[in-house]
């Protein structure tokens, strides 16, 4: 024993020759949270001639600068020491449990074997700092400024002083896929690493992305949670482009309205352009965030385009409920063309109006006199009852519209002798001889012609020709409505 002490003393005196072969490798400082464990990575070297003294009976001790060993008998019994390294392989890694703030000290490793090998590696020490809260995790990169669609990789790291219970790292939910590893640092301490991969979206813009580290404690107290965040800056083309109209709701056609185009974009929108869309044709109508325009000029569906330095956004089609009195009111007759006077015809009134037409009314117009003849979108009537120019009036909640004057082409006389049939037929059925009948018919026709009741030529057939002001006959004779008795 005296020989061993003498050797150690000589070794210390011969610094740089023999003592250089004794050394320990320790981290400079380890931070640990109160109530948790700490693992001190440790390795050492000794003189080769003493390596034979290493055996399983050797013990690793930790000595503070004040000369006391840790843990001592005065420490909390819950605080334990476990050498997890193999001393025969010069691995002195040690784990302490249930650390307390008053254990914050500087410690050196001491090797004691059940032989002459006993050594304190005082030249190297580790500082244990026991705190109530763990250090904040680290994010790399610390800022995020990218364009939408870019693949992003964020790394979160947090120290793992207790190897048995490394921290759990979690990210802001619904961002992407993450992978965790426990990585060894250069000083042999360990750090928990989580890598998050996702594709940048406009939904991430100005959002705080958090990485939270949860440290489990062995003393039964609540886990310690700490987090670090960064704010994402994502560049993207205009999104959610919408149009609003003021005043809203139905507006009269001559009203001025304000069209407002809104969009979510980064960088901000630099131009707004307005278009109407009629089928496949887009027509420019103005520009600006707010467009003041007469409602009647935006009668077709319209939209706006918003543009920034990244791209273009487009709103859905919108339409203004422009209200106006009936326009383009027209009349149609079925059947069309010349019709006998006793024929039933259908008169149809059509009009363009908003809101829809609520009433249709029919009139004849004889000079300055308007005479009511019926109502309804379709009027079924005998042609002879519409022997004057006629028109329809339509009405909605805004006003009234009126068609131009129309007329029915009524066939006025039967071909040739039709209107003398009251005279001709009685003679024909009297039973006279053929020659007498022929003479009588010729005589009767002469009488009818003399009375102006027939026109023997086809081209003299008379029609009721109506214009917008009055009724006239198409031949030089007035129409005689009665039939000879």
List key phrases describing it.
rod-shaped; 3 helices; mainly beta; disordered C terminus; six-stranded mixed sheet; 485 residues
Give your account of this protein's structure.
It is a single chain. With 485 residues, this protein is mainly beta. It is built from three helices and 37 strands. The chain has helices at residues 2-13, 421-428, 434-450, and strands at residues 23-25, 29-33, 38-40, 43-45, 59-64, 69-70, 81-83, 94-96, 106-112, 118-120, 126-131, 138-140, 144-147, 151-159, 168-171, 177-184, 190-199, 208-215, 224-246, 251-252, 256-266, 271-278, 281-287, 290-294, 302-307, 312-314, 322-334, 339-340, 344-354, 359-366, 369-375, 378-382, 390-395, 400-402, 410-411, 463-466, 471-473. The strands form nine sheets. Strands 2, 5, 6, 9, 10 and 11 form a six-stranded mixed β-sheet that branches. A hairpin with an 8-residue loop joins strand 18 and strand 19 (224-246). Helix 2 (421-428) runs antiparallel to helix 3. The longest helix is centred in the last third of the chain and has 17 residues, at 434-450. It is rod-shaped, with a radius of gyration of 55 Å. The protein starts with a helix and ends in a 12-residue tail after the last strand.
Describe the SSE topology.
Blueprint: H1 2-13, E1 23-25, E2 29-33, E3 38-40, E4 43-45, E5 59-64, E6 69-70, E7 81-83, E8 94-96, E9 106-112, E10 118-120, E11 126-131, E12 138-140, E13 144-147, E14 151-159, E15 168-171, E16 177-184, E17 190-199, E18 208-215, E19 224-246, E20 251-252, E21 256-266, E22 271-278, E23 281-287, E24 290-294, E25 302-307, E26 312-314, E27 322-334, E28 339-340, E29 344-354, E30 359-366, E31 369-375, E32 378-382, E33 390-395, E34 400-402, E35 410-411, H2 421-428, H3 434-450, E36 463-466, E37 471-473
Parallel strand pairs: 2-11, 13-19, 20-27, 28-35
Antiparallel strand pairs: 1-4, 3-8, 5-6, 5-9, 7-8, 9-10, 9-11, 12-14, 14-17, 15-18, 16-17, 18-19, 19-21, 21-24, 22-23, 22-25, 25-26, 27-29, 29-32, 30-31, 30-33, 33-34, 35-36, 36-37
Helix pairs in contact: 2-3
């Amino acid at each position: 024993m005296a020989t061993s002490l003498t050797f150690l003393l000589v070794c210390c005196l011969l610094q740089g020759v023999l003592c250089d072969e004794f050394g320990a490798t320790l981290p400079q400082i380890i931070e640990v949270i109160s109530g948790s464990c700490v693992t001190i990575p440790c390795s050492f070297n000794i003189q080769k001639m003493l390596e034979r003294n290493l055996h399983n009976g050797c013990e690793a001790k930790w000595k503070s600068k004040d000369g006391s060993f840790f843990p001592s008998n005065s420490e909390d019994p819950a605080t334990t020491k476990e050498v997890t390294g193999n001393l025969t392989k010069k691995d002195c890694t040690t784990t302490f449990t249930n650390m307390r703030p008053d254990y914050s000290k500087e410690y050196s490793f001491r090797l004691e074997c059940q032989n002459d090998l006993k050594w304190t590696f005082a030249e190297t020490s580790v500082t244990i700092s026991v705190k109530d809260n763990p250090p904040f995790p680290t994010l790399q990169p610390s800022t995020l400024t990218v364009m939408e669609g870019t693949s992003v990789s964020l790394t979160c790291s947090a120290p793992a002083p207790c190897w048995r219970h490394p921290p759990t790292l979690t990210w802001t939910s619904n961002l992407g896929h993450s992978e965790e590893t426990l990585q060894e640092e250069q000083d042999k301490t360990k750090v928990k690493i989580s890598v998050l991969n996702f594709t940048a979206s406009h939904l991430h813009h100005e959002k705080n992305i958090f990485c939270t580290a949860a440290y489990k404690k062995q003393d039964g107290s609540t886990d310690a949670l700490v987090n670090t965040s960064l704010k994402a800056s994502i560049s993207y083309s205009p999104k959610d482009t919408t149009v609003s109209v003021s005043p809203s709701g139905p507006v009269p056609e001559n009203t001025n309205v304000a069209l407002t185009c809104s969009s979510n974009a980064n960088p901000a929108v630099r131009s707004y352009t307005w278009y109407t869309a009629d089928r496949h044709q887009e027509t420019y109508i103005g520009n600006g965030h707010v467009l003041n325009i007469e409602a009647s000029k935006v009668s077709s569906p319209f939209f706006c385009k918003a543009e920034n330095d990244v791209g273009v956004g487009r709103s859905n089609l919108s339409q203004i409920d422009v209200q106006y009195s009936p326009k383009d009111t027209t009349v149609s007759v079925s059947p069309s063309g010349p019709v006998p006077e006793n024929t039933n015809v259908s008169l149809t009134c059509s009009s363009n109006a908003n809101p829809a037409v609520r009433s249709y009314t029919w009139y004849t117009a004889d000079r300055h006199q308007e005479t009511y003849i019926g109502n309804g979108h379709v009027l079924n009537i005998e042609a002879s009852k519409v022997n004057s120019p006629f028109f329809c009036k339509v009405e909605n909640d805004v006003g009234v519209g009126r068609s131009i004057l129309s007329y029915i082409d009524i066939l006025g006389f039967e071909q040739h002798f039709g209107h003398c049939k009251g005279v001709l037929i009685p003679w024909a059925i009297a039973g006279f001889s053929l020659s007498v009948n022929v003479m009588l018919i010729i005589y009767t026709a002469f009488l009818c012609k003399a009375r102006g009741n027939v026109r023997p030529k086809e081209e003299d057939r008379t029609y009721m020709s109506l214009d917008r002001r009055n009724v006239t006959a198409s031949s030089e004779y007035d129409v005689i409505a009665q039939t000879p008795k």
